[in-house]
Amino acid sequence: MGQKSNPNSIQIFHKNPNVFGSNTNSVEYSNVFKEQFTVSNNLIAFFEKKNCIVKDCFFILNNEKSFVTIFINFLVLKKRVNKTNLPVSKISTDLHVSLIIHKFLKVLTQFGYCASKRLVFQNLNKIALNYQKTAFLKENLRIRKALNIFKFEIYFEPAIFLFCLMNIIGNSSILFSKFISRFFRILHRTKKINKFLLFLTKFVNNTDNLRFKKSQIKGLKIQIKGRFNGVPRSKIRVFEKGSIPLQTISTKINYSLTHINTTYGVFGVKVWVFE
């Protein structure tokens, strides 16, 4: 077999006037790619420092080179109120999002960048909430009841939102891998790391094949590799449910790889979603 390449390291730009502008030949591909890569990484880093998970961040150049439209969609991770076990309300979540956007626009204006008509934000929490109130109501109650023992953990509410989004939108593996990496980094030196791994097991097992047939997802596989609890040799933990036909070319497998930098070394989180 030939050498395999990481799909996350390759980006394909369609050369049409809506992306590169009318004067395509005068724009060097390497410069445009480097600029797009740098801007995307900086935007993603800004939102993730504000307790968010960014799914997509891309931009489109208009016919005028100076006019750029940037699209960002993100999921806000709900925090817990101090000294209580109750999640933050929807109003405080919306306020948190508005503060993030306000700070983001303020930083851009300090660099002389007018972003009033050039930024498009999509809050994935609102999409998940609207879906929970309509078509996902029974499924939401079922998954909450199955994971009731984890209801006081910091990762419970974001996981419910993530489960909704996996049934609504496509290419959701990047959200799941970033979700795992964020909370794994927080809990890897505590006793709660085993409970978090148990949570992933129950989360995957509760997405049974009957439920998969009603949604876009037909299979889910998670692989975490690293030195668990600081042991000398690395181990692999696999969580899998449904079918993942990796040898079939015609199937659509959404794959994502995320690295976690911890005091025990670098962990790798791989997620396969069969849509």
Structural class: alpha+beta
In DSSP terms (H or I, runs of 4 or more residues), the helix count works out at: 9
Number of domains: 2
Q: Tell me about the largest β-sheet.
A: 4 strands, antiparallel
The average pLDDT value, as a whole number, equals 76
* Percentage of residues assigned to helices: 40-55%
Short synopsis of the structure:
With 275 residues, this protein is an alpha+beta fold. The chain has nine helices and seven strands. The strands form two sheets. A four-stranded antiparallel sheet has the order 5-4-7-6, with helices on one face.
What attributes characterize this protein structure?
single chain, 275 residues, alpha+beta, Ribosomal protein S3 C-terminal domain, 2 domains, four-stranded antiparallel sheet, three-stranded mixed sheet, 7 strands, 41% helix
Strand-helix topology:
Blueprint lengths: L16 H4 L8 H21 L2 E10 L6 E9 L13 H21 L8 E5 H10 L3 H10 L9 H13 L4 H15 L5 H13 L3 H5 L5 E8 L8 E8 L10 E10 L2 E10 L1
Parallel strand pairs: 2-3
Antiparallel strand pairs: 1-2, 4-5, 4-7, 6-7
Helix pairs in contact: 4-6, 6-7
Structural account:
Strand 2, helix 3 (90-110) and strand 3 form a beta-alpha-beta unit. This protein has helices spanning 17-20, 29-49, 90-110, 124-133, 137-146, 156-168, 173-187, 193-205, 209-213; strands at 52-61, 68-76, 119-123, 219-226, 235-242, 253-262, 265-274. The strands form 2 sheets. The chain has a 4-stranded antiparallel beta sheet, with helices on one face. It has 2 domains: 1-123, no CATH class; 135-275, Ribosomal protein S3 C-terminal domain. It is of the alpha+beta class and 275 residues long. Helix content is 41%, strand content 22%. 22% of the residues are buried. Helix 6 (156-168) runs antiparallel to helix 7.
